[in-house]
Amino acid sequence: MNGKQMKKYRSRCKGLVLGTLVASCVILLYCLSTPQIHFSLPEVPVPYSCAHHPSQLRSKPTTNSSQQTTGQTCTPKVDIMFMKTHKTASSTFLNILFRFGEKHQLKFAFPNSRNDFSYPSLFERSHVKDYRPGMCFNIICNHMRFNAPEVAKLLPMDTSYITILRDPAELFESSFHYFGRLVPFTWKIPSDYKLTEFLRDPHFYFDPEGFNSFYLKNLLFFDFGQDNTLELNDPRVEEGIKFITDHFQLVMLVEYFEESLILLKDALCWEMDDLLFFKHNARKGSTVSKLTPELRARALEWNAIDWKLYQHFNQTFWKKVDAYGLQRLAEDVAELRRRNAEMASICIEGGGSVETGSIQEKVMKPWQPIGEKSIMGYNLKKNVDKVHRKLCRKMLMPELQYLTELGVNLWLTKLWGHVRDIINW
Ligand SMILES: *[C@@H]1O[C@H](CO)[C@@H](O)[C@H](O)[C@H]1NC(C)=O
Ligand SMILES: *[C@@H]1O[C@H](CO)[C@@H](O)[C@H](O)[C@H]1NC(C)=O
């Protein structure tokens, strides 16, 4: 090695060490940014409703809503708790909620300095940006670990609680792909097919005490504030499911996303216009692995609580569909799809999603999982007519950029992003 090469080698090493050091510091900062002080906040009751015209809210009977014909008037529900579960198309849904919130000038309860409420700590009101007891918020929708009493003290009495679930085998696969690198015990799994190897003998690899281990076992149940490591026959599993049933008025399913939105529209008295969406945070086809039937069975067995949870809410979902009317639902879904396709042709360059490298505007580039560039995004058409320009932009904007636009200061998340850009991770 000559002197010049040596020098180059040295400076590379230095860069690497420095990069690693900075990355570690940022990770540490991120973890420590969870408010550690648990001061007790005074309990000032929140108004019954935070709507601008609360008296009008009663114009629609809350019972028998499914029998309502479209001709009857009702007032849209604006007080909403959306429990954002992980890897469940919830970024797509957030885009819908953001636009709804802007349309009705609603007040969001946002987190501070990052895009979640100090997940995986349980939610506390003190995590909400600029929170003061007695304040009135309309919508809360960022990632949190659900904590019913604290949420109840933050939101009005008539808040609609909604959430979304996904087939646990698919969810597990997606979570493994997206978060696997954040779970240290996966680092020592030999083989290029870590997921397959893990599912071959999960009890051997899984460490319930391991850092971030919840991402890889019953993540849904965990997100709802429950214990994800219970045995399936533990009575607390049934209790947990009942707890979710009692708290959430609508549990949507990723596999029936459009159907879910129509049920939501019915439950909250929204309009079809409110439901328009483009898919966000979708993975490039080549990185979406198709689970073999055997792996799927193993994933379900490994995530048995989530599977039970999912089956339970699959049943309640189809009961709601029956009540709404299967034919009526099919017609509404067809209309929604037609409207979405129409919007895609108006807004999206090339009509569909592209890889992040092909996205021209920085503001349209989606956040990527660590060590990947697999999340697809969109290019806004250049010559969108004036009527649609604003809507197109908002519909296409990735979650973090939209949050920033809504006034959330994401300095920690962004700093982390810059460091990753620099070390190219
Ligand atoms: C709901 O509707 C059914 C028939 O459509 C009616 O018999 C029933 O009394 C209604 N229930 C309430 C609480 O209004
Ligand atoms: C969900 O419910 C439907 C209707 O009852 C049933 O056909 C389907 O097999 C269920 N899916 C799962 C995953 O349980």
UniProtKB/TrEMBL annotation:
<dbReference type="InterPro" id="IPR027417">
    <property type="entry name" value="P-loop_NTPase"/>
</dbReference>
<keyword id="KW-0812">Transmembrane</keyword>
<keyword id="KW-0472">Membrane</keyword>
<keyword id="KW-0735">Signal-anchor</keyword>
<protein>
    <recommendedName>
        <fullName>Galactose-3-O-sulfotransferase 1a</fullName>
    </recommendedName>
</protein>
<keyword id="KW-1133">Transmembrane helix</keyword>
<comment type="similarity">
    <text>Belongs to the galactose-3-O-sulfotransferase family.</text>
</comment>
<dbReference type="GO" id="GO:0006682">
    <property type="term" value="P:galactosylceramide biosynthetic process"/>
</dbReference>
<keyword id="KW-0808">Transferase</keyword>
<dbReference type="InterPro" id="IPR009729">
    <property type="entry name" value="Gal-3-0_sulfotransfrase"/>
</dbReference>
<dbReference type="GO" id="GO:0042552">
    <property type="term" value="P:myelination"/>
</dbReference>
<dbReference type="GO" id="GO:0001733">
    <property type="term" value="F:galactosylceramide sulfotransferase activity"/>
</dbReference>
<dbReference type="GO" id="GO:0000139">
    <property type="term" value="C:Golgi membrane"/>
</dbReference>
<keyword id="KW-0325">Glycoprotein</keyword>
<dbReference type="Pfam" id="PF06990">
    <property type="entry name" value="Gal-3-0_sulfotr"/>
</dbReference>
<keyword id="KW-0333">Golgi apparatus</keyword>
